[in-house]
Write a structure and sequence with these properties.
This protein is mostly beta strands and about 325 residues long. The protein is built from one helix and 26 strands. The chain has two domains: about 130 residues, Jelly Rolls (Sandwich); about 170 residues, Sandwich (Jelly Rolls).
Length: about 325
């Protein structure tokens, strides 16, 4: 094939994705020292608190009022995959589950029939800055699994394979990379069926080198996101930082770097051949199902919110941990 590139597009907020993915957003915030109450030791004056998505002084509060992050909100009909490369995320949900993860950990949550959760970014360090680098990816669920019970699992960074090649490192969050398999995804996920070849790879390529992205076994949707680094070259086409590339999945792709390294996220998978109806945090197959989801949430709150605050965070002294709905506690 002469030109494996199907499309090149600028990265916005959120990033453009392809079926079976619904959404991908990249957060990079250079938070200041913490104030001892897990918020920033800095003035919040001039920020649109509650909806602060404009970078000011290198960081944002998002929907947080005192602690940055996303207070309690509902989801139904899809999965969230949250990759925290730097900093920490505090999870709380309507099932009573909780966790703190970061430093390369990944949380895989199946919203299924409906769940509320909060995702807050506690600024734990009071004597140094608190940088945060995080991806959140939404993966659709097929109609047969839209109403499965909510579920979440942790992929601790110690258990996620990282392949070291001569000029590159590949973190295998989902899928199979040259016979190295990622940890098992959530059990009802589209990714749980290996025939769908869902893959999420975080790749770092050194400067002045090349890397071969191996082909898939079938025609899939495959997108590369160059989110950090200098220009790369694919099939004699130069691609600059903060651009996505939709590429042919059935051929090996050679990626060449220039005088700086490159960081890429790869999302691929077999499309779900079903209609998609979306409204905010609800993803169903028809508009009627969306209306029913909204009505059910109004009536039930998907089980209610068992925490004192919608922006619940955990004690500053806590390390990385996961507490599951059945009470099982895992500490790292």
């Amino acid at each position: 094939m002469n030109n494996p590139i199907k499309q090149i597009f600028p990265l916005g907020f959120p990033w453009q994705t392809q079926n079976p993915f619904l959404f991908c957003v990249y957060h990079l915030d250079h938070y200041p020292k913490g104030n001892g109450e897990l918020g920033p030791d800095a003035s919040l004056e001039g920020r649109n608190l509650g909806n602060d998505f404009t970078i000011k002084d290198g960081w944002r509060m998002y929907h947080g009022q005192t602690i940055p992050g996303f207070p309690a909100h509902p989801h139904r009909g899809f999965e969230t995959i949250t990759i925290v490369n730097k900093g920490y995320c505090d999870h709380s949900d309507s099932l009573g589950a909780a966790g703190r993860f970061g430093l390369g950990d990944v949380q895989w949550m199946t919203a299924g029939s409906g769940v509320q959760h909060s995702e807050m970014f506690p600024l734990l360090k009071t004597d140094a800055e608190n940088p945060l680098e995080l991806f959140q990816i939404w993966l659709n669920l097929p109609k047969a699994n839209k109403f499965v019970d909510p579920h979440f699992k942790m992929l601790w960074h110690e258990d996620i394979p990282v392949i070291e090649q001569k000029n590159a490192t590949i973190k295998i969050i989902a899928g199979n990379f040259r016979e190295t398999q990622a940890p098992e995804p959530a059990p009802d996920s589209w990714a749980a069926n290996t025939d769908n070849e869902v893959a999420i790879w975080n790749i770092h390529i050194e400067a002045d080198s090349s890397f071969v992205l191996p082909k898939a076994t079938q025609d899939l949707n495959r997108t590369l996101y160059l989110y950090d680094g200098a220009d790369i070259t694919i099939a004699d086409r130069k691609v600059s930082e903060n651009h996505g590339i939709q590429i042919e999945a059935t051929v090996d792709i050679t990626i060449k770097t220039g005088d700086a390294s490159a960081h890429l996220l790869v999302l691929q998978g077999k499309p779900i051949a079903e209609p998609v109806a979306k409204y905010g945090p609800f993803v169903m197959n028809t508009e009627d199902e969306i209306q029913k989801a909204m009505e059910e949430y109004r009536l039930t709150q998907f089980g209610g919110w068992p925490w004192r605050y919608p922006d619940n965070v955990h004690d500053a002294s806590k390390g990385r941990f996961a507490k599951y709905p059945d009470g099982t506690l895992v500490e790292k």
